[in-house]
Amino acid sequence: MSVLNSWDSWKNFLGDRLHxxxxxxxxxxxxxDLAYQIGDYLAKEVDPKNDQEKVLADLWSVAxxxxxxxIASMMVKLVQNNGTR
Length: 85
Known about the structure:
Elements: H1 7-23, H2 28-45, H3 51-62, H4 65-79
Helix pairs in contact: 2-4
């Protein structure tokens, strides 16, 4: 099963990656920029697999780049307490 099939699995996956980046010394601004790049890739290349991802894809599609950065930043905040840490 792909981590994209379940919203909770997706958040845990992202939380794990966030904690790994933080452990390696990546700064919050770099993490948020990477989240923006990943969000942009997913919006363009990956079909949403659940209702939450569909909402995010719809929001991303109508957002300005500045708003997309805000969405990415909020996703980072959302997953900070997720993962297996």
